[in-house]
Amino acid sequence: MLLNKTRLVGFTNHSRKSNMENNSTSDIVILSGNSHPELADLIADRLGVRKGGCSVYHKTNRETMVEIADSIRGKNIYIVQTGTKDVNNNIMELLIMAYACKTSSARSIVGVIPYLPYSKQCKMRKRGCIVTKLLAQMMCKSGLTHIITMDLHQKEIQGFYDCPVDNLRASPFLLQYIQESIPDYRNSVIVARNPGSAKKATSYAERLRLGIAVIHGEQKEAESDEVDGRYSPPCIPRSRTMDVSVGVPVHPAKEKPPINVVGDVGGRIAIMVDDMIDDVQSFVAAAEVLKECGAYKIYVLATHGLLSSDAPRLIEDSPIDEVVVTNTVPHELQKMQCNKIKTIDISVLLSEAIRRIHNKESMSYLFKNVTLED
Predict the structure, then answer these.
(1) What is the pLDDT of residues 129-138, one digit of tens each?
(2) How far is CA 208 from the centre of its chain?
C-alpha cells in the first residue's frame, strides 16, 4: 500500500512538472498590428508558436478598433509593431493593443518595436518639444512592461522609459554581410556621412580592421532642423535697452564648408554606415563626392530602411552601387522600384531576445562586445 502511494505521489509530481513545462511554452502569445505582419510571422515561426488571433482595423470615421480573439489572461504577450510611413496609425494601434491586453489581465506585455517612431525628435528644437519622451510615457501608461527595439537614433532615449528597454544591435548582421557579400572588402574604407556618424564608422572600421574617412560639410539644412539657442548662446541684436559691448557677446554664426572627404578613398570601396536611411539626398550627395575622389564602388549600410519620398528613384540614378538595410521596416514596394536595395533578415535576433526574456535568461549574450559607440 505504501509502495502504491509512493508511486502515485511520483506520478503526480511528474504530471505537475510536465504541465508546468507545457504551460511555459503555451503562455507566450505573439500579436501584431498592421505595420509589419510579415516580420511577426517570421518571429512566430522561429519560436515555433502560432501567432495569436488579433484583428486591428479602422472604422469608417478612421478610429482604430482592436479585437483579440483568444483568451490572454495570465499570458505573456509580445506585440510586434514597428514604425512605417503611416507612423501615427502605427502608434495608436500599438497603444490600443497594449491597453486591450492590460484590461484583459495579461501577465506581461512586451512591445517588440524594431524601429521606434519619432526617435529623431529626441532633442529640443526651437519652441517644439521632445516627442520621444511623450511617446515613452504614453507607451508605459498603455500597459507595456518591457520594450525590445533596435539601434535607437540616440541611446539616451532609453532613459525616457519607466520600463526596461533592450536596445538590440544589427551591426553583427551588417558586418557579416560586408565580409561575405562584398568582394575584396579588404580594399574598403568605412565612411562616416557626417562627423556625427564618426563613432559608428570607427566601430565598424575597428572590427573589420579597415581605414576610416569622414565627409565634412553638408548641404544647407532646412530651417526646422537648425539647432537653436538651447545648445549655444543666441545672437543678441543691438537694442535701446541693452548694449552688446556691455552684455553677452554675439556668438559668431556657423558657416559650413562645401562637401569634402577627410581621408583617402581613391581606388577603394567606400562603405557608408548609418542607423537609418530616410531622405536619401544627403547619401546621394556624399556618394557623388566619393566618386569624384576616386572611390570605384559605393555601398550604403543601415539598420532602418525608411526610404521615404522618391528615394528609390534617387538611389537608382545615383553613383551608389548597393543599399543594404534590415527588415525592421517593410520596404518591398521600394525594392520593386530599385534593384540596388538589398534586405537582411534580423528576425532571428528578435526571436532570440523574446525567447530569453520569456525563459528569464540573461540577455548579455546578445550584447557581447557591444560598446558605447555601437
Answers:
(1) 999 999 999 9
(2) 23
258 phi and psi angles, rounded to 5 deg: -60, 160
CB 238 within 8 A of CB 249: no
- Pull the grid cell for residue 369: 562586445
Per-residue HEC secondary structure of the chain comes to CHHHHHHHHHHHHHHHHHHHHHHHHHCEEEEECCCCHHHHHHHHHHHCCCECCEEEEECCCCCEEEEECCCCCCCEEEEECCCCCCHHHHHHHHHHHHHHHHHCCCCEEEEEECCCCCCCCCCCCCCCCCHHHHHHHHHHHHCCCEEEEECCCCHHHHHHCCCCEEEECCHHHHHHHHHHHCCCHHHEEEEECCHHHHHHHHHHHHHHCCEEEEEECCCCCCHHHCCCCCCCCCCCCCCCCCCCCCCCCCCCCCCCCCCEEECCCCCCEEEEEEEEECCCHHHHHHHHHHHHCCCCEEEEEEEEECCCCCHHHHHHCCCCCEEEEECCCCCHHHHHHCCCEEEECCHHHHHHHHHHHHCCCCCHHHHCCCCCCC
> What is the distance, to the nearest Å, from the Cα of residue 140 to the centroid of all Cα atoms in its chain?
19
Q: What is the pLDDT of residues 342-370, one digit of tens each?
A: 999 999 999 999 999 999 999 999 998 88
User: Shortest CA distance to 92 belongs to which of 163, 169, 33?
Assistant: 33
Q: What is the widest separation between alpha-carbon atoms in the chain?
A: 106
CA-based torsion, 93, 99, 103, 107: positive or negative: positive
Going by C-alpha positions, the residue among 24, 198, 17, 31 that lies closest to residue 102 is 31
Give me the percent of the chain exceeding a pLDDT of 70.
Answer: 85
Kindly state the average pLDDT of the residues 269-273. 97
Instruction: Pull the grid cell for residue 341.
Output: 536595395
Cα 305–Cα 307–Cα 310 angle in degrees, nearest 5 = 165
Strands 64-68, 54-58: pairing is antiparallel
Buried b (16+ CB within 10 A) or exposed e, 206-232: ebbebebbbbbebeeeeeeeeeeeeee
Per-residue confidence (pLDDT) for residue 320, from 0 to 100: 97
